[in-house]
Amino acid sequence: MTVQTEIPASDLTETMLDMGVRARAASRALGRLDAADRTRGLKAIAAAIRAATPTILEANRLDMEAAREKGLDAAMLDRLALDQARVEGIVSGVEAIAALPDPIGREMARWTQPNGLDFARAAVPLGVIGIIYESRPNVTADAGTLCLRSGNAAVLRCGSESTRSSHALVDAMRAALTKENLPADAIQLVGTTDRAAVGQMLSGLDGKVDVIVPRGGRSLVERVQKDARVPVIGHLEGLCHMYVDAGADPQKAVDLVVNAKMRRTGVCGSLETLLIDAAVAEALLPVIAAALTEAGCEMRGDAAARVIVPEMNTATEADWGTEYLAPILAVAVVDGLDGALAHIERWSSGHTDSIVTEDQAIADKFLGRVDSAIVLHNASTQFADGGEFGFGAEIGIATGRIHARGPVGAEQLTIYKYVVRGTGQTRP
């Protein structure tokens, strides 16, 4: 593995600027390739990662040992951990990205003006994308290959916890591109754990970085949004809610709540707050609580919830704004849909919110009123994942309002230009 953990401070700026120069050159080279070339590169990457599985798993073992010594919590360890199945999942994700329609050159609209000019709006790459993320090594492959699919060069900066795993993945990816005579610098990983490298990326590397995508906790995202001198596709924490309406099917409600919370607690689509209609709380909440307890979940309830299920711990105001990423769930009894909407409006991070009900009118009102990137009806919040959307993978779940929102896949990593075709028209 080509892991470099220390670069002298005097050399860091020069090193990062060089990465930017090489990334820009690679992005221009990608622009000269056709869709078949990008597909060929992606298929080669998938094969290379599969072949490098033993090396990747050994690197991850070392990362896990170091993470345990540092005292990382269970959620972070789960995000970091790789095994044979998870590496194969990474490979499957790359293969799915390779199978996606190539977004570059796609005509988004076309029309002709009365003067005969033919106008087209066509998709083009963003250019060079800097991705700053924390402990999940799968993001290394997802981000690099989504950028390649969309004709962008990627400059990746992983968290220190996953540095060995990420370098092993990038080594395989770059070797595959080189073997296929494609620009290996289309995927680069910052070779230092020095946090000053993040500042260099946020500066834009002398105009070479076009967009920054942060993926991690609140502190990382807030720093990026505060300090970046280039546009940011923001990914805030997942304060995900599920509202169980009076019109919910009871068994469906139990199944959905348990899955949304406990399928995998360390992902951003994990349920963090359960809202239940007061009209059914007395009958249904004990059943849901029993299922959650059996699954190993701690509940922290408001006063009304604790009257019904006294075994719950007491929720504080801080619990409504906490992304636990752990088997902990805040629970509130609300006064119907309006009460649920008011709570979500106050506390949601705009990530993912779901309603459980058989009343279509209530569902439609919820879907229309909740202003989050992803809203669901009778479905688990764990579907907040680009792969589940058919995107192959995602760089993150964008919660902002500019350019991209929801899962950021290959299509969302493009912008457009206008192509105007004439027959000699001059403007009077």
Q: Which SSEs are present, and which pair or pack?
A:
Layout lengths: L8 H23 L3 H17 L1 H18 L3 H7 L3 H16 L7 E6 L5 E8 L2 E6 L4 H12 L3 E5 L5 H17 L7 E3 L6 H7 L8 E5 L2 H10 L12 E5 L5 H13 L8 E7 H17 L3 E4 L1 H6 L4 E2 L2 H4 L7 E7 L1 H12 L4 E5 L3 H10 L4 E4 L19 E2 L7 E2 L6 E8 L7
Parallel strand pairs: 3-4, 3-6, 4-5, 7-8, 7-12, 8-11, 9-10, 9-11, 12-13
Antiparallel strand pairs: 1-2, 2-16, 14-15
Helix pairs in contact: 1-8, 2-5, 2-7, 3-7, 5-6, 6-7, 10-11
Give a written overview of the molecule.
With 428 residues, the protein is of the alpha/beta class. The chain folds into two domains: 9-235 and 398-402 and 413-420, Aldehyde Dehydrogenase, Chain A, domain 1; 240-383, Aldehyde Dehydrogenase, Chain A, domain 2. 44% of the residues lie in helices and 18% in strands. The protein has 15 helices and 16 strands. It has helices at residues 9-31, 35-51, 53-70, 74-80, 84-99, 138-149, 163-179, 196-202, 218-227, 250-262, 278-294, 303-308, 317-320, 336-347, 360-369, and strands at residues 107-112, 118-125, 128-133, 153-157, 187-189, 211-215, 240-244, 271-277, 298-301, 313-314, 328-334, 352-356, 374-377, 397-398, 406-407, 414-421. The strands form four sheets. It has a seven-stranded parallel sheet with strand order 10-9-11-8-7-12-13, sandwiched between helices. Strands 5-4-3-6 form a four-stranded parallel sheet, with helices on both faces. Strands 1-2-16 form a three-stranded antiparallel sheet, with no helix packed on it. Strand 7 (240-244), helix 10 and strand 8 form a beta-alpha-beta unit. Helix 3 (53-70) runs antiparallel to helix 7, helix 6 packs parallel to helix 7 and helix 10 (250-262) packs across helix 11. The longest helix is centred in the N-terminal third of the chain and has 23 residues, at 9-31. The protein is globular, with a radius of gyration of 23 Å. The model has no long low-confidence stretch (mean pLDDT 94).
